Amino acid sequence: MEGPRDGIARHGSGPIAALRAFGSQVHPVFMLPPIAASWFGAVLGGLESVAFGAVHSVAIFAAVYTAHVKDGYVDFHVRDEDEDHPLTVTGCRIALGGATAVFFAMLGVLWIGVDLVAVLLTLPGWLIGYHHAPQLDTNPLTATTGYPAGIALAILGGSYVQTASVGAVSAAFAIVFLLVLSGVKVIDDAQDVAYDRSIDKRTVAVAAGPPAARRIAYGLMVLGLAVVLALVAVAVFPPTSVLAVAAFAAVAGATRRADAELATMLLVRGAYVFLAVLIAAVWFEPLG
Question: Is residue 54 part of a domain?
Answer without folding.
Answer: yes
